[in-house]
What does this fold into?
Amino acid sequence: MSNLMGERRKKVSDDGERSLIKTPSNASIASQANAATAAAAASSTGDLERAARKQFQQDVTPAFVYVLAVFSALGGFLFGYDTGVVSGAMLLLKREMNLSALWQEVLVSSTVGAAALSALAGGFLNGLFGRRVCILLASFIFTVGGVVLSTAPNKEVLLVGRIIVGLGLGIASMTVPVYIAESSPPQLRGQLVTINTLFITGGQFIASLVDGAFSYLRHDGWRYMLGLSVVPAVLQFLGFLFLPESPRWLIQRGLTQKARRVLSQIRGNQNIDEEYDSIKSSIEEEEKDCVGGGPVIWHMLTYPPARRALIVGCGLQMFQQLSGINTVMYYSATILQMSGVRDDKLAIWLASVTAFTNFLFTLLGVWLVERVGRRKLTLGSIIGTGLSLTLLAVGFLLSAQHTPPVTLHPSDPSTPNSTCSRYGSCEPCMLDPACGFCYRENSSSVFATSCVPVSPAYTGEAAWGRCSNATQTKDGTYWAYNYCPTSYSWVVLVGLILYLAFFAPGMGPMPWTVNSEIYPLWARSTGNACSAGVNWTFNVLVSLTFLHVAQYLTYYGAFFLYSGLALLGFLFIYGCLPETKGRRLEEIESLFESRLCSCGASDADEGRQIEYIRVKGSNYHLSDNDASDVE
Ligand SMILES: O[C@H]1[C@H](O)[C@@H](O)[C@H](O)[C@@H](O)[C@H]1O
It folds into this structure.
């Protein structure tokens, strides 16, 4: 490895191309001087920071970096679409292909499992072939997966298609944030990377609409649902044929001339000298520090700053999933049914309201990330998430305490000893996956209640009796498979809305955003591969265990457990997450240098960042040579 690094260093130190740098025009120098004046005139540090940022964005940020971010974030859209669309597709598939519960579970989790594995492999591919090739590869894989899924003749081919899609998901989920972070100017980086998560939640929302629309098509509707992902995948593939490689990766590989060209392309009229030099010298520094051979993960584990960054990155992803987002999203249709929406179709449409709320509040995160910073946003978010989870748990607890008793004990001659008939009230009946609650309702009460076995083919019906034909029958008889009728459903509904409002701006996007920036360049691919792998692994663990956890601990127990985990997450974030706002990627490693886990950013750190932006704001008019004095 040291030999390799020595060779690379030689290439990196080739500096013969300085004449290729675009020198700033008089107009740009004048406008940069305006930036400084505007910044200097601002009275308070907050005004100063805002003025500098605004002026910088107006003068220096070319539209190209936004185009680049949006095309990359199509990877996020596919992430959201492919993970979201499957629930609606499964409703149709299980009838059409007669899928057992095991097959349904395998089809849903195979994608997430494959994503976990391919995210890990993506680290290696990223280092070797670069970010652009990996994004091209991911969109190609998505396209193939979409075609296989939409034309699948049987469940085995469906499984192959779901695994292919998962392979694309893993690579895209770890590459896209890194690519955007490496191409963005520091003061926009948080916002642009967070756009990727906005696209994830946007993909989930569109998937829920597609699910709603095609659920009316009883035959082959699932083919359209699963196959439509080909459209954004092809769009991204075509776009990336024309988009450039990450300049940082190019410099690392010694392709300095190309890196300069790309940097001036994405920075427009801004002078790139300072940025180029700082990236290059930090890579040289990194390479000097890095001695000995062996895999990058070993170097990360034995080099304290990289190890701390890895702990923070993986911990954030783990706590994101442990705070139960995918359970809450998945369960939202049932929560809505509990609250009185008894019609199946309407519940599917209302689930898209949940997905839209998640999307809307992620937009708030895009707006807040560069204003309040990553640390405060994540801390505020996890506190709110934990409290909303407690409210959800209290709602479920109240419903359980006032659960309606079973008043009728009908027995079917073919299943006389069904365990269902032994339950005395709705709560234990509904928690048993083999049983459901059948009841009649009028405006003031629930009556004529019974606990009966669920139909083996479809959980939306009872195996026999009054509820064997549909979720809701004409005479006001209802079938409740995984909820109990309750007058406390409003508490759960408020909990759900608050949960999304708090989770989506912070805990949703920040783990991805922070991971894209905390690792030094030599460890960035591997660090992101590991943390994305952790995200997918905990995603599959939490979704696979939810029903079992609910069965043993009841729903309120499961939600109390999640809120306890959110509390642990808060302590972890409070103790370990530093503020990275406004810093260059190359500066961030120093945040992990001395402290145990790089604990909280102090006010002094905040001051330094404002100073950094201020100095940069007033520095644009300086000559190229002066620029280096600033750092
Ligand atoms: O950041 C995303 C987002 O919050 C999604 O809504 C969720 O489904 C994903 O698991 C998560 O990684």
Q: What stands out?
A: Confidence is low (pLDDT under 50) at residues 1-44, 596-631. Strands lie at 435-441, 446-453, 477-480. The pocket of 1,2,3,4,5,6-hexahydroxy-cyclohexane is lined by residues 197, 200-201, 204, 320, 325-326, 358, 508-509, 535, 539 (CB under 6 Å).
